[in-house]
Amino acid sequence: PRAPAGMGDVPEPCPQAPLAVLSKVELRVSCKHLLDRDTLNKSDPCVLLLMQSQGQWMEVDRSEVIKSNLNPVFAKIFTVDYYFEEVQKLRFEVYDSHGQAGVGTHDDDFLGGTECTVGQIVAQKRVTKPLFLKYGKFAGKSTITIISEEISGNNGYVELAFRAKKLDDKDLFSKSDPFLEIYRIDDDRSEQLVYRTEVVKNNLSPIWEPFKVSLNSLCSCEEKRKLRCVVWDYDSRGKHDFIGEFFTTFEEMQKAMGENKVQWDCMNPKYKIKKRNYKNSGVVVLLDLKIHRVYSFLDYIMGGCQIHFTVAIDFTASNGDPRNSCSLHYINPYQPNEYLKALVAVGEICQDYDSDKKFSALGFGARIPPKYEVSHDFAINFNPDNDECEGIQGVVESYQSCLPKIQLYGPTNVAPIISKVARVAADEERTKEASQYFILLILTDGVVTDMADTREAIVRASYLPMSIIIVGVGNADFTDMQILDGDDGVLRSPKGEPVLRDIVQFVPFREFKNVSGAATGVLPFPPCPSQPLPPLASSPVPFHPFPIPPHPLPSPF
């Protein structure tokens, strides 16, 4: 992960210092002439993408497993941040996967690897490199090809639902096992695989699962760009039988919006020449198409949205008894405690963007009056009908008044508060005005207990006008919290669904408390609202259509 400005001994940048040049890059990977590690079948390859961070190789993502194929074209699209001014080292490793066990780590499973930089791939757009085994030995004639594409400013995505009817039967004793591939045809007439559906077994009229793909991947955001769609009959040995194909454009696909449907004849060119009465090899129908636009923080602010700021404070027992000077909640009459320092540092900048200067202030992890039951989303002013405070000073006063009335308890659950703010954001988005952008500041002293629920809540919130800043207070080990930040790869829900936008920024406050607010990197805005706004942590990431689990599940390919 990149070290934010102001960390350690790095001097505070001057106001004129240029911002880091950042863009998103999509990488498509294919291999040729892979080594065959299997006795009875061909290798089942999977690609791991690693990035060097502080001298260590960290896995960023991995592709699907393609069954029995020595020349795989992977459907998985890797997305990486590209910083023009930095040398970003990448390593691609190809493994032969073994069923449910996933990618192995034994030497016998390793099919080869290669290293390069993001800059090299971006500069050349298409890089083909040999694969190497250990000690620099060539992996036979194996090569890997990486194709890069910088993502344009249009960050919408489309949801598609296809089915087919009366496809040709390619199997002797059963029906075909069809799957659909969509290719984008580029200006140089090369084809880029956009999506590959699942296989529907033994069915000549399959209904494939709906899927999502970014407009950038589908058609480079050009509605008239030609697309080639191919239907195959799956073969477990990798020798899939061609059923038919058709050509279309995104412009034509959009006729399927609403209750309308669009269909194409699935054609086999050889049959068309040989058979006099040949009509088609089946029909492919686009049942539904939904377009979703993805907006960045800048889009919301420049569109006139006001920021609504919510602060959530950790009142779990791990903070220590507030009456003890060692407690992070200790009220010292002579100087603010760690929570107040973090609150003021972040809040004073946020309030410049909040027109009414009213902040919602919530607490979690404490037993609260009158019944002293544990709550994970209570108003610290104890007014559930109006949890807002007048400015940062009002939040500070409510915090100081709240502490003596509650009992610090636990656990450290933050998903309820994320979901609570998300519901308000969703209600706001449903109104015609949609005039507010919601920022949730979570101050906590440790790793969250409900990590799975928190990941799920963040993925849901990424579809809304909302961002989350998590500040770690105290000296705990916050390593696991970096998962939520998404700097080492796209954050996913427990079911594998990726965030639509990168909306979380996590920082340990101990590394920034002696640095001015503008240089902390905690906040995505400059201290003065009249200055141009650099991108927030919620800058959009392209929606990736494939929910890849932590370990690749066997795919039929």
UniProtKB/TrEMBL annotation:
Keywords, comma-separated and alphabetical: Repeat
Name of this chain's protein: CPNE7 protein
- Specify the superkingdom: Eukaryota
Show where the C2 domain sits.
Answer: 6-131, 138-265
One BP annotation, GO: cellular response to calcium ion
Tell me the organism: Falcunculus frontatus
The UniProt entry's sequence similarity note says:
Belongs to the copine family.
Is Repeat included in the keywords of this UniProt record?
yes
Repeat among the record's keywords? yes
GO MF, any single term: calcium-dependent phospholipid binding
GO CC annotations on file: plasma membrane
Matching CDD domains: C2A_Copine, C2B_Copine
Q: Which residues form the VWFA domain?
A: 308-507
PROSITE patterns (alphabetical): C2, VWFA
